[in-house]
Design goal:
The chain is an all-alpha fold and about 350 residues long. It is built from 15 helices and no strands.
Length: about 350
């Protein structure tokens, strides 16, 4: 296992790529703003009032959202892959994200029923976020309650997948009985988006990601021990039950909170931990955790650049772009290395 000092140059290069990706994301869009003017506006020099308005009210919040979403999903994917010692595990295996989708589906596709009872429509960006948050929190509580009763980690993984299947089935039934307009609204939400958050919503998401990150940092020692097996981790003095709770709560906060605010965004949580392992060639979470934070942010920023189709008013679903761009890269890396570092 290497230390952070060993990979200092690599981290500096990654941070430079992150900064350039941020500038690229803010500069490109339906209106292209030169790098020089982008830096000037960000430093407080109002080169152009309309460009300044675009950057401060639309592009900067979107770019910061992309950083939080990419970092948070990458961290939660790393936590799940280590906890279950499964390279195919991702942030959604516990069904927490599916719970968020169910909450949003109940509100959007059941809104006509709710409106008939309350006398007014309930569907808007704020209520969808609240409904998705409530859905993810409910599933998190259920998973925590089950984690108290069972000791087998793999059984917990299967139960999480079953929660995902149940919530997916309920969403399918709601979709079947929903009218075309509501179904379309839910489908658009399920595409995922990093461009719909206000500064207040972005602040709330920042708090959630900070909490998840803090819990992840507290779990580093336990995560490194779990790589060698639960018995070995116990022999090192790791409290398995406490470690499992911390990881589940951290994943719930990250995956559930991000899905509530930005919709379900696939691939990032599954792929970024593998990309980080390929680059750093280590399993030490003192290195991997900051690596996936930066890597995930870069990936989301670049995918968002492609999704917003620079020079066009159209925006592609970010959920599709992450997989289209990211999957071939992972396939190429694994073929090149001929084995999966884990």
């Amino acid at each position: 296992m290497g230390s952070l000092k060993t990979y200092r140059l690599t981290f500096l290069l990654l941070l430079l790529v992150l900064f350039l990706s941020l500038l690229l994301n803010i500069s490109l869009g339906s209106v292209t703003i030169p790098f020089k003017d982008t830096l000037g506006i960000l430093s407080g020099n109002l080169a152009n009032e309309s460009w300044s308005y675009i950057i401060w009210n639309y592009r900067l919040p979107k770019a910061l959202t992309a950083i939080l979403v990419g970092s948070g999903l990458a961290m939660s994917g790393l936590l799940m892959q280590t906890l279950f010692r499964n390279p195919l595990a991702g942030p959604f295996v516990l069904g927490i994200s599916s719970g968020a989708s169910l909450g949003a589906a109940l509100l959007i596709m059941g809104s006509s029923f709710f409106a008939g009872i309350t006398g007014f429509a309930l569907v808007n960006d704020v209520t969808i976020t609240l409904a998705a948050s409530l859905g993810s929190f409910s599933v998190l509580l259920a998973v925590m309650a089950i984690a108290i009763r069972i000791k087998d980690t793999m059984a917990l993984l299967i139960i999480g997948l079953m929660f995902g299947s149940i919530t997916g089935a309920v969403v399918s039934i709601l979709s079947y009985f929903s009218d075309a307009e509501k179904l379309q609204q839910f489908v658009f939400w399920s595409f995922g988006s990093v461009g719909n958050l206000s500064w207040l919503q972005l602040s709330l998401l920042t708090v959630i990601v900070f909490i998840g990150t803090s819990l992840s940092v507290l779990s580093i020692k336990a995560l490194n021990a779990l790589l060698l097996g639960e018995s070995y981790a116990q022999s090192l003095g790791v409290n398995l039950k406490k470690a499992r709770y911390l990881v589940i709560i951290a994943t719930g906060a990250l995956a559930g909170g991000i899905t509530a605010f930005a919709g379900p965004i696939a691939f990032v949580g599954l792929a970024v931990p593998h990309l980080a392992r390929q680059l750093f060639d280590t399993n030490d979470h003192k290195v991997l955790l900051p690596a996936v934070i930066i890597y995930g942010a870069i990936l989301m920023l670049l995918c968002d650049v492609v999704a917003q189709l620079p020079g066009s008013a159209s925006v592609l679903p970010i959920n599709a772009i992450t997989s289209i761009l990211g999957a071939p890269v992972v396939i190429w890396l694994l073929i090149r290395r001929r084995k999966m570092a884990f």
